[in-house]
Each structure stands twice: as C-alpha cells, then as structure tokens.
Amino acid sequence: MLIAQISDPHITEKGKKAYGIAPSNDNLARTILHINRFKPKIDVVLVSGDIANDCLLKETQHAQSLLNELNCPYYIVPGNHDDRENLFSVFGGKAIPAIPSVENSFINYVVEEYDVRLIGMDSVKENSPGGEICQTRLQWLSECLAREPHKSTIIFMHHPPIKCSVLETDIDGFEGAEEFGELIAKFSNIKAIICGHIHLPTHSLWNGSIVSTAPSTGMQLGLDLSMQKQSEFYLNETGYRLHHFTKHKDLISHTIYVRENNDGPYPFIEHRDGSLANEAAQELKNEQ
Ligand SMILES: [Fe+2]
Ligand SMILES: [Fe+2]
C-alpha cells in the first residue's frame, strides 16, 4: 500500500503567491501531477495541515479545487494556518469524514478501509501557532486505539509532538505532549506519527514510535541548528513523503522531490568504470 503525504501547501487565492513570493499554488499542482503519474498507483493521500496560508475561506476553496485533481482519495487534518469551520464547510463529509458536534468540534477521525489504520488527529491549539493534544482529544484517541490494539496504525497530524531543533516551532511548543507520549508508549502497533509544520523532512524515535515530518510543498525552511535565527524560507524544489506499507507490514518512508528537470538517470552498468564518461570527454576534446 502506498500513502503519499502532502504537507503545508499554504494555498493562497488564485493568482497570488504565499508571502508575495512563494509559488505555493503552482507547487501543489505540480506535486499532484507527480503523485497521479507515480507507478505503481498511490492508494491514498494524507494532507498534514497548513492547507491555507492565511485561514481564509477563499484559500481553502482554492486548495480543494487543486486537491480534487488527485486520482485517489485524500484526507486532511488542520494546521495553525487553517480555520476549522472553513475546513469543515469545504472538505466535510469526504476529505474530513468526521462530523462536527457540540461536544467535539475537533477534526479527529479514523479511516478503516486500508491494510493500515489511518487516524487523523487535530493538533491545533486555539489562537496559537503551537500544537496541543488536550484531554478531550487524548480520551478520544485512547478509546480509538484500545478498540484495535493490534492493527498496524499510522497517526497523522500537523504538529510534531517533539522539538525538532527549529527555533520558532520549538518555542511555540506542544501542550500535552507528555501525556500523549505516555499513551503512544502503551501501543506497539503504531507504525509512525507523521506530521508537518516545520517544513523540513525529519524523523525521530519517540515513545517507541517514529515521529516524522514532511517537507512543505509551499516553501522549505532553512536549517539552522545553531538556533540563532528567526525562521527563513527558501524556494527550493517542492517535495512530498511516500510511505510504503509493505506486505511484511513494514513502513518504509521516502522523501520525493518534484523537480523541473532531472539530470539522469545514469545506468550503473554503463558507468561502472567511468568508461562511457571518459569516452564522452574524449569526444568533446576531439571536437574542440
Ligand atoms: Fe506550515
Ligand atoms: Fe504550521
């Protein structure tokens, strides 16, 4: 089974760029094209938040029109740049199978129809860029995990529950991470907790499970492990994660870069001793 993870597309209104410079709309369209052409066919796409750039309904609607070009089902969870009501109104019933209620307005849900169980978790903290798993969400997840404690499971959410050595997001923090970690540690069937938010691909072992983050399709963050600078972004090639759940029930995760042009491929067999490269160099020399 192949699961593509798109993260942090930061979609703007048609014709606009994120932060005035990042071609986030075009990047998402190119990423979707890459996913649709991938062989073998990708089964499902998970979008791990920051779907809109500025919480706007128009941005959310534009994101939906782009995501609807996917040739497989897709599911979304909110990020700190999204508005829950806008997401429910645009994606409710399909990409968000959860039904909002007075008691629980979080975007939490389970997708059961695949070999691996997919749990979408809402990690948004009200009026804050940081993450949170509050008691209500913890209780919901606890009951959900207890129902099928042996089925291979992937949890997808926006905020990673650990500090990833990114100054800004580390400061913003994640409320309830300790209790969330204690719950995760009780279950050995959680293959990974896949997140976004930091716009960099990372992975880490946390409470017996893998926590990984995906690159953003919108814009990539600069890596500054000295933790001195406020965040800066780059307009590098866009990318997504491809999680391969094998028939042996292993989860192998790849980072795929969507490039304009690829220099290659170069078959190893033809370049083993560099002879072809040497011949080409000689030919060039002779021409000069
Ligand atoms: Fe983001
Ligand atoms: Fe975010």
Ligand list = fe (ii) ion
CATH superfamily: Metallo-dependent phosphatases
Please give the CATH architecture: 4-Layer Sandwich
Fraction in beta strands: 15-25%
How many runs of DSSP E, i.e. beta strands?
Answer: 15
Our count of domains comes out at 1
Mean pLDDT: 93
Distance between the termini: 52 Å
CATH C-level label: Alpha Beta
Short description:
The chain is α/β, with parallel strands linked by helices and 288 residues long.
Jot down its keywords.
288 residues; alpha/beta; Purple Acid Phosphatase, chain A, domain 2; six-stranded mixed β-sheet; five-stranded mixed β-sheet; 8 helices; 15 strands; binds fe (ii) ion
What does this structure look like?
By secondary structure, this protein is α/β, with parallel strands linked by helices. The protein has a single domain (2-287), classed as Metallo-dependent phosphatases (Purple Acid Phosphatase, chain A, domain 2), CATH 3.60.21.10. The chain is built from eight helices and 15 strands. Strands 4-5-7-9-11-10 form a six-stranded mixed β-sheet, with helices on one face. A five-stranded mixed β-sheet has the order 3-2-1-14-15. It has a two-stranded parallel sheet with strand order 6-8. Strand 2 (44-48), helix 2 and strand 3 (74-77) form a beta-alpha-beta unit. The longest helix is centred in the first third of the chain and has 14 residues, at 24-37. One fe (ii) ion binds at residues 8, 10, 50, 79, 81, 197, 199, 216.
